[in-house]
């Protein structure tokens, strides 16, 4: 394992990892790229305990389905990393993502895992020349696919041995047997442009942004031999005690595997209804129509030096008042990290209060400035 070298949150292109945690308002944040995104309840229990022992006890699942731990210190980061590597296997190098149910999803066109493994292995030496955010998605195109997520290179199965290859906004149809060679060629082209380069910097890249309909992982999904039940951490965050209690409940109900998933979710393999009820009682999101699935919120002033408001606490306060067809973004500042897209209603923290943006982004000019006691009535008015 490499020496722990913290990075500043302000560094362009920075991406926190176990080896290079990022400085935030509540200490160092370490992101764990767990191999295969799979955890046993015992491993989840141990990670929760280590988060409390070495950090501030807050554990997050990101929008892309990575686990991260907050509140580490310069003194605790290295012992935490050593302890984590005794619990799970950490992936390093080029980020190559596959859907969480790859190989088990009866609706997928092709199993993406062999191709993903080939790309990961072949790019080992090349990865040192690529920026930490360069990402390859290899998608079998099943029900819980990764189409909503951005990627520098996206390979999606379309049938008959063919894959759609999208790079920098441009797409071609290629043969499965050519996919590895073509992917490596594009990665070399990105690497030749320097560590700050992305696929959008390649000559001929299209300027249009990637857009795809969001796919909810919440609820029960059929697998080839059993089921997966998706639950989510509210606003992507949980304290260590709730996570440990969830793992304990899983063990009691005979669950042997969790899978990390996009949209801040955990997929419990073979979960009975009684487990879902316990997860709901612990505060986790278990229903697809839960209002919290349509709210994005960063940690705000509770853990970010740029945050002016406790964004997640505000989000929890407003969740019961959200209309079924409304999306809400509560941002601690104008950067809008939790949701860098438009929302029906956006509340932006500032030194003067809460900026209200309708059908826009956190960085847009607010239509009104609100105080804390005006938030519920303003939301009701905008929805009515």
From TrEMBL:
* GO molecular function (one): heme binding
Q: Tell me which EC number(s) this protein carries.
A: 1.14.13.83
Q: Which InterPro entries match?
A: Cbl_synth_CobG-like, NIR_SIR_4Fe-4S, NiRdtase/SiRdtase_haem-b_fer, Nit/Sulf_reduc_fer-like_dom_sf, NO2/SO3_Rdtase_4Fe4S_sf, NO2/SO3_Rdtase_FeS/sirohaem_BS
- Tell me which UniProt keywords the record has, alphabetically: 4Fe-4S, Heme, Iron, Iron-sulfur, Metal-binding, Oxidoreductase
Would the keyword Chloroplast turn up in this protein's UniProt record? no
- Top enzyme class, one word, equals oxidoreductase
Q: Where is the Nitrite/Sulfite reductase ferredoxin-like domain?
A: 21-86
- SUPFAM superfamilies, A to Z: Nitrite and sulphite reductase 4Fe-4S domain-like, Nitrite/Sulfite reductase N-terminal domain-like
One Pfam family from the record: NIR_SIR_ferr
**UniProt KW NAD keyword:** no
This chain's protein is named Precorrin-3B synthase
**Which species does this protein come from?**
Devosia ginsengisoli
